[in-house]
Design goal:
8-stranded mixed beta sheet, elongated, alpha/beta, disordered C terminus
């Protein structure tokens, strides 16, 4: 009985050991089957996610860098010049929106530019740069009607007028001190800059520009023109107006004076004459409002107009001074006869061809005839007395 009991215990212990071993082995097997594949798939998934994240991050970062160089520009005054600048800005990837009192909605739509006829709606779009493309004469009214309180406090204001001291003073007077001010003058237009801006002068004055990101924003705007190959010229507004009065205003004045003469092309045009015809054509394309603005808002324009008038008078005096010498030579030395016609008669005929010179020439002729008559009378008296 005792031996049988011991045998039974041994048998039970062996069975217990085998059962424990089988369970342990099954657990190892199960553990291996469950965890090993899971570990591999997990590592593969993580590797794939990491690779995708790396690729997406780089592309997104590139987009951020590219978009960081682009500006949101609001153009005020969407006429010919505003549209001209907008086209080039859009081609560079900048976001452009437009506001104008005149309805340019259809034109803006074809260009892909959001158009606003309400100044409040326009300002609530918070453009980084507000670019005034208005006429010289309307700039003050347009600026004072803009609800600038709806803009961000550090908005950059830029003008493109042909005069510079006037908008500078206006900006500093009307705009809050937190706003940046950049005065510019692209010295070209839709015709001269139609195909390329390379080599064309762009004048600018950083009147009031903050530091840091605000300075970077200003440089990004200037780079719109610099990247197109413009000759970038930084100078003060006062210096610009001094140069412009002696060049731009005089050019417009001479072009308009020649335009009044109704010059026509001839079969024997010289290069100089072709240049004059081109000048007339260029100035004829600009409105009188622009020309008047150049005169009205550049204090040096009046001085240049007076200098031009004095120069013309000097030329006339030089011409008639020489003519007077020739007449004196004929009267006192008996020369100057041509085809049986005396020089005073020749001058009288030519005087009718020019309104400007007719009065002066007639005076010379009248004086010459009076002198001749007095001489003839004296000669007759002398002959009679003898």
């Amino acid at each position: 009985m005792c031996g049988m009991t011991c045998c039974t215990k041994n048998t039970l212990q062996q069975l217990s050991w085998k059962l424990s071993s089988q369970i342990l082995c099954q657990d190892v097997v199960l553990h291996t089957k469950i965890r090993v594949p899971r570990k591999r798939s997990s590592s593969l998934e993580v590797a794939a996610i990491d690779a995708a994240q790396s690729f997406d991050y780089e592309s997104l970062r590139m987009e951020e860098l590219q978009s960081g160089n682009k500006l949101k520009i609001g153009i005020v005054g969407f006429g010919n010049f505003g549209q001209f600048l907008a086209q080039r800005m859009i081609s560079q990837g900048h976001k452009v929106l437009a506001y104008s009192r005149t309805d340019y909605k259809d034109v803006a739509h074809t260009m892909g530019v959001p158009f606003f006829s309400d100044a409040d709606d326009f300002c609530e779009e918070h453009p980084e740069v507000v670019l005034l493309c208005t006429s010289i004469l309307s700039t003050e009214d347009v600026l004072k009607l803009l609800p600038v309180q709806r803009l961000k406090r550090n908005t950059l204001f830029v003008d493109v007028l042909s005069v510079k001291e006037f908008p500078k003073k206006l900006f500093l007077q009307v705009l809050p001190q937190e706003f940046d001010v950049l005065c510019t003058h692209p010295m070209f237009g839709p015709e001269s800059g139609k195909s390329s801006w390379v080599g064309l002068p762009f004048v600018y004055d950083k009147v009031r520009i903050g530091g840091g990101s605000r300075l970077e924003r200003c440089d990004k705007f200037l780079n719109i023109f610099g990247s197109e190959g413009c000759r970038m010229v930084e100078m003060s507004c006062a210096e610009h107006d001094r140069y412009a009065a002696g060049s731009q205003f005089i050019t417009h004045t001479v072009g308009r004076v020649l335009g009044k003469l109704a010059l026509e092309s001839t079969p024997i045009n010289t290069k100089g004459y072709e240049t004059l015809l081109g000048l007339v054509e260029n100035t004829k394309g600009d409105s009188f409002e622009l020309y008047y603005g150049l005169f009205m808002y550049n204090q040096r324009a009046t001085e240049e107009l007076e200098r031009l008038e004095l120069a013309f008078d000097s030329i006339k005096k030089q011409l008639f001074g020489r003519l007077h010498d020739v007449l004196r030579q004929q009267l006192f030395e008996g020369v100057g006869m041509k085809d049986g016609k005396s020089l005073p008669n020749i001058v009288e005929d030519a005087a009718h061809k020019s309104t400007d010179f007719a009065k002066a020439a007639s005076n010379v002729v009248a004086h010459s005839k009076a002198t001749t008559n007095r001489s003839s009378k004296r000669s007759g008296d002398d002959n009679g007395s003898s």
